């Protein structure tokens, strides 16, 4: 089995972390939504930004208090509030990256499940971050996840390693769930609490740093 995870991520006592300075000090990147909100999309966006070191956790906390209005992402933070209770479409996720146009390249795949699966399988790069929507209408599942790695079994089958805003990762782990595939398509979501959902992919957003 081969395991590939974003190179910026380090396992810490509170789950996935990034180092913030030369001393190697760790800062957790996990943001958890509540059982009452629909903030999975914005939470994935800001966790992706922290993984790519585009914003720090302390900066996000300052903006959440309504301060630092001159920060390039302050307007993004204000926009995110409008999605908190009603969910976020793909175009909404794109809007939340306003202010970072000179630092990143965004690629959105918002067509069919087949195209999302094909794009992810063909274009996956470990140093990029992916925000993926999964759904199961019968189970009332419509959810954004962060894809931060890939697990490849000896038989060639692939699982995508995820961080879920709804389910926190355990301590000293880099991810909180897996999306397993069948015949090259995402077919089920396995959470770290033991729950398994049948699920399909419906949309994908790839975030690349410009210098890559």
Strand and helix order: EEEEHHHHEHEEEEEEE
Into which percent range does the helicity of residues fall? Answer: 10-25%
Count of all domains = 1
How many helices in DSSP terms?
5
CATH class type: Alpha Beta
How many beta-strand segments? 12
Radius of gyration: 16 Å
Secondary-structure-based class equals alpha+beta
Poorly predicted spans: none
- The coarse overall form would be globular
Q: What is the CATH topology?
A: Cathepsin B, Chain A
Distance between the termini: 27 Å
Q: State mean pLDDT (0 to 100 scale).
A: 87
CATH architecture verdict:
Alpha-Beta Complex
Question: What does this protein look like?
Answer:
The protein is α+β, with helices and mostly antiparallel strands and 212 residues long. The protein is built from 5 helices and 12 strands. It has helices spanning 40-51, 57-64, 74-81, 90-95, 113-123; strands at residues 2-5, 10-12, 15-19, 26-28, 104-109, 129-136, 141-152, 158-163, 177-182, 185-191, 196-198, 200-209. The strands form 2 sheets. Strands 1, 5, 6, 7, 8, 9, 10, 11 and 12 form a 9-stranded antiparallel sheet that branches. It is globular, with a radius of gyration of 16 Å. The model has no long low-confidence stretch (mean pLDDT 87).
